[in-house]
Design brief:
The relative contact order is 0.08. The two termini are 17 Å apart. This protein is an all-alpha fold and 191 residues long. It contains 11 helices and no strands.
Length: 191
């Protein structure tokens, strides 16, 4: 499935062309497929020279998914739409959306999206200065990555866990966790 995986900070012209063609072929108006494709398109466009266009596309897709009142569509659309918003909108907008992804992912048993939500919630918590939430989500990510047994997900767990020691100035612990991340990344052969 070309483009199924969100690749952070990589703009793929082939994927963008495929998504544009797909959007153009869909009937106008609200639809589950239109909302999903538009959200994925928004995420695929980032980082953009003007990040506002993808952000607006994501917001529109999320609003459409809410009107459709289908939890699976809403989960997919918010998850993919957040790829257009994570580094470009403030945590006050992101946090409730990422919490909603976490709740929907748990309810719908979508563990990959739950995993991504925990990683995103770590960053939201850092920006908001919510130290307790940093630990909650970093630890939840690590547990879920181990349960899923995904080598490509395991390297991020020690990096997320390094946030709190970094904030506390415990650089020896940060270095240990960075080494764990490097070893896990090497073992995963994740590009």
């Amino acid at each position: 499935e070309y483009g199924a995986e969100i690749r952070v900070a990589i703009v793929d012209p082939t994927l963008i062309a495929m998504l544009e063609e797909s959007l153009a072929s869909l009937p106008p108006g609200d639809g589950r497929l239109r909302a999903r494709v538009q959200a994925r398109f928004a995420g695929a466009l980032q980082p953009a020279v003007d990040p506002q266009k993808p952000i607006e596309l994501a917001r529109e897709a999320i609003a459409m998914a809410r009107r459709l009142a289908d939890p699976a569509t809403l989960l997919s659309v918010i998850h993919d739409g957040m790829a257009a918003m994570m580094d470009f909108v403030g945590p006050d907008e992101r946090l409730p959306l990422n919490r909603e992804v976490e709740r929907l992912a748990v309810a719908l048993h979508d563990r990959p999206k739950q995993l991504r939500a925990h990683a995103r919630l770590v960053f939201d918590s850092v920006e908001r200065g919510d130290v307790a939430a940093i630990d909650v989500h970093a630890n939840a990510y690590a547990r879920l990555a181990e349960e899923l047994r995904w080598p490509a997900a395991r390297w991020l767990a020690p990096l997320l866990r390094s946030v709190r020691p970094m904030m506390a100035g415990d650089f020896a612990r940060v270095e240990d966790l960075a080494e764990q991340a490097r070893q896990a990344a090497d073992a995963s052969q994740d590009p």
